Amino acid sequence: MSASRAVPDEIVQSPAWHRATTLAERAASLDCRRREADSDEMDHALAARRLERWRSEPPFDDDACFAQRLAQDSLTEVDLRRLLGEPIEAVRDRRDKSIASSECLLFYRHGVLNTR
């Protein structure tokens, strides 16, 4: 277990752990290159089913509300489809890099990380 985490690494590495990642967290972890690239890993049928489920529920059955929700996280419908259809392992891998960078920055800012 890492000194900075209260949860054992084997749990945090489990794909199931990352299913709780919010849309905002997933969106924030996307980089521009990833947004532009067409992912071979994406399950297009799964993305379509999940998007249809989103769009069938109020308030997202209203186009204006749906567009407003996407704008909250600076997403396009294409971005959302990518997030809804990507394997959870991709979320885990992307978030691990993001979390590691954030922890390093936090430790550095608080003088815990000695850079010499």
Overview of the molecule:
The chain is mainly alpha-helical and 116 residues long. Helix content is 64%, strand content 0%. It contains 8 helices and no strands. The chain has helices at residues 9-12, 15-18, 23-29, 32-36, 44-56, 63-72, 77-85, 88-109. The longest helix has 22 residues, at 88-109. Residues 100-116 have low confidence and may be disordered.
Write the layout of secondary structure elements.
Blueprint: H1 9-12, H2 15-18, H3 23-29, H4 32-36, H5 44-56, H6 63-72, H7 77-85, H8 88-109
Strand content: under 5%
User: What value does the average pLDDT take?
Assistant: 76
Number of domains: 1
Alpha-carbon distance between the two ends:
25 Å
**Measured on Cα atoms, how large is the radius of gyration?**
17 Å
Shape: elongated
Helix and strand succession? Answer: HHHHHHHH
**Low-confidence spans: pLDDT under 50, at least 5 residues?**
100-116
> Structural class given helices, strands, pairing?
mainly alpha
Number of E-state strands: 0
Helical run tally: 8
